[in-house]
Write a structure and sequence with these properties.
Strand content: 15-25%
Number of helices: 11
Helix content: 25-40%
Number of strands: 10
């Protein structure tokens, strides 16, 4: 029996006024899969993720989640369906404490009087012990790595079925990335579907099962991550190899 995709997008288009940022993005994520999206700066990766998460309204194409057409649904509706996004640049609330930021991630659950929020809060603090140490500090006082931990933890507290992580590595030191990427891999091993947008292709190809390559607002090609790690197109464009004449 063939399992249907948890997420699929076809021919997605995103515009900012007259500027067409995404012209033809197509990808899918199966239940429990860890999928990467790589590409150069300005390829349309983040705009695609924002359209999936309901932050932007697509100008064309289709977004389907769990078999339903959710094209154009707003962000709060996507969170209720089970889609959480860790945005590029973290976007934590700097004037709120770590605890308050986490509770904002669980806002829809708190409003439903979900009694398991406290238990899930403990679990994410076990995942990120540094956040427990800084639970009463303002988000703006955290380091960049700690803010990224907070952004991930906040997303997890909405109890998503799909976690979208946009540019995890942005502005972070390699030692922080060496800690965060295995955490994402561990979450995926526990069954969480993850869609990772990453400019640092070497990291993305190590942890994901499949990867899509975007350029100029289009999905150009895709394949198993292990195979793409040895693909000449990826090696030359994203992994720092240069052909000799």
């Amino acid at each position: 029996m063939t399992t249907s995709p948890l997420l699929s997008i076809e021919g997605l288009q995103v515009r900012y006024g007259a500027i067409e940022a995404v012209t033809d993005a197509t990808l899918s994520v199966m239940p429990g899969e860890f999928v990467g999206v790589i590409g150069s700066n300005g390829a349309g990766k983040s705009s695609t993720m924002r359209a999936i998460a309901g932050v932007l309204r697509p100008a064309g194409g289709k977004v389907r989640f769990d078999g339903a057409d959710v094209t154009g649904r707003r962000g709060h509706a996507m969170v209720h369906l089970g889609v959480a996004m860790v945005p590029e640049g973290r976007m934590i609330f700097g004037d709120q404490t770590v605890r308050e930021n986490l509770l904002l991630g669980a806002y829809s659950r708190v409003m439903r009087n979900d009694q398991s929020v406290g238990q899930d809060m403990d679990e994410v603090l076990e995942l990120f012990p540094r956040l427990r140490e800084r639970i009463g500090q303002l988000g703006g006082s955290l380091s960049g790595g700690e803010q990224q931990m907070l952004a991930i933890a906040r997303g997890l507290l909405s109890k998503p079925r799909l976690l979208i992580v946009d540019e995890l590595s942005l502005g972070l030191a390699p030692k922080i990335l060496d800690m965060l990427f295995p955490i994402l891999a561990g979450l995926n091993a526990r069954g969480l579907s993850i869609l990772l947008v990453e400019q640092m292709a070497s990291y993305a190809l190590q942890v994901t099962s499949r990867t899509y390559v975007m350029e100029n607002g289009r999905t150009m090609f895709s394949g198993p991550s292990r195979e793409l790690a040895h693909d000449d197109r990826v090696l030359d464009a994203y992994l720092g190899r240069h052909r000799s004449d």
